[in-house]
Write a structure and sequence with these properties.
It is a single chain. The chain is an all-alpha fold and 201 residues long. It has a domain of 137 residues: Four Helix Bundle (Hemerythrin (Met), subunit A) (Up-down Bundle). 52% of the residues lie in helices and 2% in strands. It has eight helices and two strands, in the order αααββααααα. It has a two-stranded antiparallel ribbon with strand order 1-2. The longest helix has 22 residues. The protein is globular, with a radius of gyration of 16 Å. The N and C termini lie far apart (38 Å). InterPro entries: CHP03086, DinB/YfiT-like, Maleyloyr_isom, MDMPI_metal-binding. This is TIGR03086 family metal-binding protein. It comes from Streptomyces longisporoflavus. It holds the Pfam family MDMPI_N.
Length: 201
């Protein structure tokens, strides 16, 4: 078991959670209202969405409580510190996935089609955390915590799950000529998720 409770079978989730935690802890004072690659949301709203999504995965797996507010309509107002919002969500998701039987045929997930094989389901959870870590980092002037090593398996996951949820969760994919900047798996993943790799506020 790792420090945060995810068993070694899910290193992709560990890495994605670490990326999101790094990005949130690195937000400078006064940057929480800054715009992000999620055009309608500021940094606070992306954090609320990301934390809510992690709770959504935990709830789907365990039947426990989900997020207190709709992750797709984040208020932009925190009643506590960013860390106090994020850490319980990460712990809930990590703990839920730690109890999943890796050999199960399917597990429940909060995205269409409602169930996925365990490895793909945990990949979807990791993808959500990692891409929003990138959103928060680039919006606040940090070094993006998304490497090609992490992006490569996430790109494989994305290609299997994104199309049924693209209309409400992700922008249209960008081709190399439209997304333009950067090469490698990180840039390819970002463009596939409708993000410009060289985006700045």
């Amino acid at each position: 078991m790792s420090e945060h409770g995810t068993k070694a079978a899910w290193p992709l989730l560990d890495s994605a959670h670490a990326a999101l935690r790094t990005a949130v802890l690195g937000v400078p004072d006064g940057h929480w209202e800054r715009p992000t690659p999620c055009a309608e949301w500021n940094v606070t709203q992306v954090l609320q969405h990301a934390a809510g999504d992690q709770l959504g995965y935990a709830s789907a797996l365990t039947g426990g409580p989900g997020p207190a507010e709709n992750p797709f309509a984040p208020s932009g107002k925190l009643t506590d510190s960013p860390e106090a919002l994020l850490e319980p969500a990460l712990a809930a998701a990590a703990g839920a996935w730690a109890r999943v039987d890796e050999t199960a045929q399917e597990v429940r997930v909060p995205i269409p089609p409602g169930t996925l094989p365990p490895a793909l389901g945990v990949g979807a959870c990791a993808l959500d955390a990692a891409v929003h870590a990138w959103d928060i980092a680039v919006a606040t002037g940090q070094r993006p915590p998304l490497s090609d090593e992490l992006a490569a398996p996430l790109l494989d996951v994305a290609r299997q799950i994104i199309e049924p949820i693209r209309a409400f969760a992700f922008a249209p994919a960008l081709g190399p000529e439209a997304g333009g900047e950067g090469r490698g798996e990180t840039s390819e993943l970002l463009r596939y998720l409708g993000r410009r790799p060289a985006w700045t506020p």
